[in-house]
Amino acid sequence: STRRAAHGATVHPLQSAHRGVRAKGGEMGASKNPHDDISEVLIDEAKIAARVKALGAEITAAYPGNDELVLVSVLKGSLVFVGDLMRAIDRNVRIDVMEVSSYGGGNTESSGTVRILKDLSGSIDGLDVLIVEDIIDTGLTLNYLTSYLAGKNPRSVRIVTLLDKPARRIAELPVDWTGFEIPDKFVVGYGLDFGEHYRNLRYVGVLKRELYASLIGEA
Ligand code: PRP
Fold first, then answer.
1. Is the N or the C terminus of the chain less surrounded, counting Cβ atoms within 10 Å?
2. Which pTM does this prediction carry?
3. pLDDT at 23
């Protein structure tokens, strides 16, 4: 539940695996005021709101008719995005949630092994499915999830993500809607966390490097 930051080409792969860096309370050194831990606001609240509204309109237009559309929110990062996005979609929708973990444990690079911690509650047989993600990084999580969901006989499976870090991609994916392409920086806020903190920030910001440097083997 953490993302990766920019690193030079000589950096050991483990050091760029920020999602594998699980910061626990004491290790984090988080400030009392979460805004103090942000070095740069990458996407402000107004810009997010405008983009989410536009995505909602595009998605509404892409699913004409009254057939059921199931939004599959991938916890926990997409919680904030899906809440805003579903209210920008002007048609009948149903929402379901899944929680997945894309690595076996420890500070390891994403392996492509995805464990399902919480599966869908309802059937998607014959229905249009839209996976809602906060961020696509290596693409390994969604690569697994799209084929997993395709196995449940839906009519269609499409993907919307708020953020995309194309620089980090390992598995190529057909991403149908992207909010923002971002550089390879360690971002938090608007649902995205570091050590489960910062999800409630109303903007997407870059985490100060000193907050996680020791966890990736930097002094
Ligand atoms: C994030 C994000 C995606 C995944 C993307 O989840 O929500 O599920 O990482 O990474 P990938 O493209 O490299 O597979 P995370 O594991 O951080 O959990 P969280 O949503 O609960 O914070």
1. C
2. 0.88
3. 60
